[in-house]
């Protein structure tokens, strides 16, 4: 005798029931098999466990320590004018009141800064350089960031021509910096002795990523290059991550800030980047269920960023990581910034094939430019990791896109997914969907897929009268749409929204 009981419960937003929008799905079911006096019980209480395999090994994820840490705030730097010339700085500093000042990037010493101060009708230029990851003018006083340096010389000239009296604010959005001590005060500091560095996982702009052990648990460790002049950018990425907590974002565990050691410690994603995952496994091993899972996970993470008004600016398959249980998580927040804090000047090298036209031409970044990148990421998922815009030279991509060029759908890409790509690539950012809108659509697709997987896993040995459900529909799906993305749309696109109520409570009994 086999007894199977399944409950499927929906929480439905009745205000948008046509077509019904499923807000959340709880799958809580116990399947109890009793045969020959042998019993086994299996529980699924997490939707994410569906369609991702049944690995018995725990994921290589270190839960954040408790108590909950607080967010690390950035310090505003209204007096920082970025990359301007010496002559431009002198033109801006008028009238030349004693103590009027600004800070700019050094033109003669790339990576350093210059403090420009008015004194007796002249402008004095002081080089601010890095030494052992700290800033100094005279190699007597050292500071963790520019904000600390300016604060010090606002109190006392201490060797300068005059005390800093009045800052010249930059027009537009101010720059920001972060105080390393803030990580300690907010509870994010990790002792260097608690980290054991192992093999390299890859190299990036600021240094390399190493596999590490944090008190015996696997973690990923971003190691800043010795005496790197990018320490502030590195810490800015970490400070942003302290405010982000979502199951589809790679989580920060802490930072190491001891002496010359600057480490950023995150959860370890054992299956690497989504790009490598797609390319190494290909069509033989990456199922359509996997594809929709990856798309849904990424969209859910981006919808959270959108809600927090954070713009990623570098969304691509290479910057989405896969956990041991095949959950996709958005990573690499090196270019990410809060929407209101994005500076007007260029942010450096941009991935042309993934970046929206308005961002490439006018540096206008927003969640809608992230949506453009998401469309390209979808194309990567359904092409199994191909490079976007194949057979088009990099220098020609922007020009062709501005003239209306849109990539063809990858082979076997569902039409509805390709339609979403095309909406994401609308030249007018205002006409692109939001991640909230797309995530709601994907949620329906993903949850219908889970129901189909559940129903197709159950042994079809029950008499019709024992199944309180439209068995003809399930049999049709089994024979015609099994393990196919279109099966999700079979449910989602039915004209009668009452179809969803059939699944309000499903009981399968014998």
Automatic annotation (TrEMBL):
Name where it mostly resides. Answer: cytoplasm
Q: Where in the cell is it found?
A: Cytoplasm
- Establish whether keyword Membrane is in the entry: no
Enzyme Commission number(s) from the entry: 2.7.10.2
Give the main EC class.
Answer: transferase
Q: What sequence ranges are listed for the domain SH2?
A: 79-168
State one Pfam family annotation. PK_Tyr_Ser-Thr
- InterPro entries xrefs: Csk-like_SH2, Non-receptor_tyrosine_kinases, Prot_kinase_dom, Protein_kinase_ATP_BS, Ser-Thr/Tyr_kinase_cat_dom, SH2, Tyr_kinase_AS, Tyr_kinase_cat_dom
Query: GO CC terms on record?
Result: cytoplasm
Q: Provide the GO biological process annotations.
A: actin cytoskeleton organization; morphogenesis of an epithelium; open tracheal system development; salivary gland morphogenesis
Q: Does the keyword NADP apply?
A: no
Where does the record place the Protein kinase domain? 195-445
Domain of life of the organism in this record?
Eukaryota
Instruction: List positions binding ATP.
Output: 222
Which molecular-function annotation in GO is an example for this chain?
Answer: non-membrane spanning protein tyrosine kinase activity
Record's keyword terms, sorted: ATP-binding, Cytoplasm, Kinase, Nucleotide-binding, SH2 domain, SH3 domain, Transferase, Tyrosine-protein kinase
Q: Which reaction does it catalyse?
A: L-tyrosyl-[protein] + ATP = O-phospho-L-tyrosyl-[protein] + ADP + H(+)
Family, according to the entry, reads as follows: Belongs to the protein kinase superfamily. Tyr protein kinase family.
Q: What is this protein called?
A: Tyrosine-protein kinase
Q: Which organism is it from?
A: Allacma fusca
């Amino acid at each position: 005798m086999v007894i199977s009981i399944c409950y499927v419960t929906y929480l439905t937003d009745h205000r948008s029931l046509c077509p019904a929008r499923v807000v959340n799905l709880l799958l809580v079911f116990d399947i109890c098999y009793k045969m020959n006096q042998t019993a086994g019980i299996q529980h699924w209480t997490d939707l994410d466990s569906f369609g991702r395999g049944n690995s018995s090994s725990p994921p290589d994820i270190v839960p954040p320590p408790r108590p909950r840490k607080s967010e690390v705030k950035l310090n505003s730097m209204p007096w920082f004018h970025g990359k301007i010339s010496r002559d431009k700085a002198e033109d801006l500093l008028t009238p030349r009141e004693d103590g009027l000042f600004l800070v700019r990037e050094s033109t003669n010493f790339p990576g350093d800064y210059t403090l420009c101060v008015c004194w007796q009708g002249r402008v004095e230029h002081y080089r601010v350089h890095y030494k052992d990851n700290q800033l100094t003018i005279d190699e007597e006083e050292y500071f963790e960031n520019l904000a600390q340096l300016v604060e010090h010389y606002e109190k006392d000239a201490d060797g300068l021509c005059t005390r800093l009296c009045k800052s010249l604010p930059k027009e537009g959005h101010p720059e920001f910096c972060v105080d390393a001590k803030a990580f300690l005060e907010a509870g994010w500091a990790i002792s260097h002795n608690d980290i054991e560095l192992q093999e390299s996982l890859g190299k990036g702009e600021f240094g390399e990523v190493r596999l590490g052990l944090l008190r015996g648990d696997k973690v990923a460790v971003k190691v800043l290059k010795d005496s790197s002049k990018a320490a502030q950018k590195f810490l800015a990425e970490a400070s942003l991550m302290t405010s982000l907590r979502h199951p589809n974002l790679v989580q920060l565990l802490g930072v190491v800030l001891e002496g010359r050691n600057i480490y950023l410690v995150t959860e370890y994603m054992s299956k690497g980047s989504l790009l490598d995952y797609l390319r190494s496994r290909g069509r033989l091993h990456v199922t359509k269920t996997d594809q929709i899972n990856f798309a849904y996970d990424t969209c859910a993470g981006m919808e959270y960023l959108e809600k927090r008004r954070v713009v990623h600016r570098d969304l691509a398959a290479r910057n989405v990581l896969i956990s041991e249980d095949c959950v996709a998580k958005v990573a690499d927040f090196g270019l990410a910034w809060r929407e209101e804090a994005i500076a007007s000047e260029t942010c450096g090298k941009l991935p042309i094939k993934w970046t929206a036209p308005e961002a490439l031409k006018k540096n206008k970044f927003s969640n809608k430019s992230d949506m453009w990148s998401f469309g390209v990421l979808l194309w990567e998922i359904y092409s199994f990791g191909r490079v976007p815009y194949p057979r088009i030279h990099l220098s020609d991509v922007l020009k062709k896109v501005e003239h209306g060029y849109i990539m063809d759908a990858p082979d076997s890409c569902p039409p509805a997914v390709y339609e979403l790509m095309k909406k994401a690539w609308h030249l007018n950012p205002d006409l692109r969907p939001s991640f909230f809108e797309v995530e709601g659509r994907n949620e329906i697709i993903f949850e219908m897929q889970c129901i189909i997987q559940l129903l197709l896993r159950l042994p079809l040995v029950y008499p019709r009268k024992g199944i309180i459900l439209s068995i003809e529909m399930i049999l049709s799906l089994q024979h015609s749409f099994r393990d196919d993305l279109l099966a999700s749309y079979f449910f989602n696109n039915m004209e009668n929204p009452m179809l969803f109520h059939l699944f309000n409570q499903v009981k399968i009994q014998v």
